[in-house]
Amino acid sequence: MPNARHGDAGAGATKPVVGDFVGYASTYVGAALISGAVVHYPLDPPRFMVIAVAGAVLFACATAFTEFVINRQRATARAVLTMVPASLALSFGIGSLSGGIQHFKDVPVRAAVLIPVGLALAFIAYVMRYHAQRWRTVVRPAGLALLATAALAFVALHQVAAGMPAVPSGDHHGQVPHSDGVAEAPPASSAPQPSVRQSRPSVSQSPTRAGHHDDGHSHG
């Protein structure tokens, strides 16, 4: 037993700390990129699509690096085909859940969808990623209770979002500059119109009046 413990300690000591940190941090950075891209996608679809894809690729690569390089698992074709889709689904689930929570006040209707869908997706993907042999956990009482919680959250959050203003104050994600631009546009476009309308009648009336005076003098 002492030898076994010493061997475990030695195995832990040989594990590269820097490499383990890189894989660990990259998974969180990838999930954070997906989180921001999922929430802000309507503001600039091409830009945030690139960010979402980059985050998903980073998350999947970091997971593969940690499993096959740091933990030295066997990289079989079956393991890769199981790990990559589940990791991508897990990253999008976590990103949707965290992004919806962070920006619920900014985009309540969108966040009301992202939070419960992200929770359900993350749970199912987690089971398939780390406990694939126990996939029946999803349809057992504990798993069904979690999915039911996500469904109830979907209904409750939509009710909360319905009572919130469509354009919340203090939004720092592009809506305030847009609203300012719209607010400034009507005065700028409406200001010249009265002056043009007032100037045109004065110009058009002056010849007619002059014509009447000329006619009056000619008949007189």
Describe, in plain words, how this protein is organized in 3D:
With about 220 residues, this protein is mainly alpha-helical. The protein folds into 2 domains: about 10-175, no CATH class; about 180-220. The chain contains 8 helices and no strands. α2 (about 15-40) crosses α4 (about 75-100), α3 (about 45-70) crosses α4 (about 75-100) and α5 (about 110-130) packs antiparallel against α6 (about 140-160). It starts with a helix and ends with a helix. Mean pLDDT is about 75; it is low at about 1-15 and about 175-190.
List keywords for this structure.
220 residues, mainly alpha, disordered N terminus, membrane
Question: How many domains in all?
Answer: 2
Shape designation: globular
Largest sheet: none
Helical segment tally? 8
DSSP strand count:
0
N-to-C span: 133 Å
Which regions contain 5 or more consecutive residues with pLDDT less than 50? 1-13, 174-191
- Indicate the structural class: mainly alpha
- Report Rg: 32 Å
Mean pLDDT: 76
* Helical residue percent band: over 70%
Q: What proportion strand?
A: under 5%
What letter string, H or E per element, gives the SSE order? HHHHHHHH
